[in-house]
């Protein structure tokens, strides 16, 4: 379970190739150097393998050979802003909320318990009551077209996992994900967990404006990475609460051609960003974005569509002035101390 499967590799290769077709000309890959690409991965083998598979499809062999991968010790890419008792407290509270949800559905709890006896080689109490771990284990069968697992233990009430059980489990998890949007506890936890990553992203946005590089910054992470980031930015949706394999969260940077000759500084209003999750424009959901542009463009199918752009200075101001408003604090340290009880 700890490694990327051949199906996962093929998915990431396809994503890399698709995005190369979109961005290679725009970002002038033919004149790029390895320094134009910054790559981070968490310490897990599957995220490192995901990054390599994606880059193999995304970059030319010459660029790929010289790109340096940097390891992040945390799955939320928190860098210098990791330790936070408040965040831990809110996550514990949220896990309690999830446990209460599950206990209100005894049929699902029974399903998880009985299927766990079949799926896992060694029975562990915490796994036997965790629908998410069971889903991950069962998807290794479903996604590869393999037969669902069976047991040879005749003492078990059922010897095989059935498709209706998988469907029931997935339906419950999808229902549970829809409840996440109502949880202020989860939102607070995500805001704190995502701070280090958003701070890192903003620092690169400023560098892109002032130094014109790097051209691409890649973070190869987890579903929780997307959950924290999307929730903190205020663009959470059912799809970000339960992101599928090979999901991609993209921040594009644009410069207004009408001001191309204007003098710029690190937070110039000439620059804008756009957020896409699995190809869907999520920019218009960003609550802190003021003076958003709505541009009508012709897509590859010849159809008109709206393109939303948010001034980059708004995310910089949000990070510096309003990010910790939920906690009545002005910085990460105070937010983590004031609410740690």
From TrEMBL:
The keyword Repeat does not apply. It comes from Cuerna arida. Belongs to the histidine acid phosphatase family. GO terms for cellular component: Golgi apparatus. It catalyses: 3-O-[beta-D-GlcA-(1->3)-beta-D-Gal-(1->3)-beta-D-Gal-(1->4)-beta-D-2-O-P-Xyl]-L-seryl-[protein] + H2O = 3-O-(beta-D-GlcA-(1->3)-beta-D-Gal-(1->3)-beta-D-Gal-(1->4)-beta-D-Xyl)-L-seryl-[protein] + phosphate. It holds the Pfam family His_Phos_2. GO terms for biological process: chondroitin sulfate proteoglycan biosynthetic process; glycosaminoglycan biosynthetic process. The keyword Hydrolase applies. This is 2-phosphoxylose phosphatase 1. One of its GO terms (molecular function) is phosphatase activity. Keywords: Hydrolase.
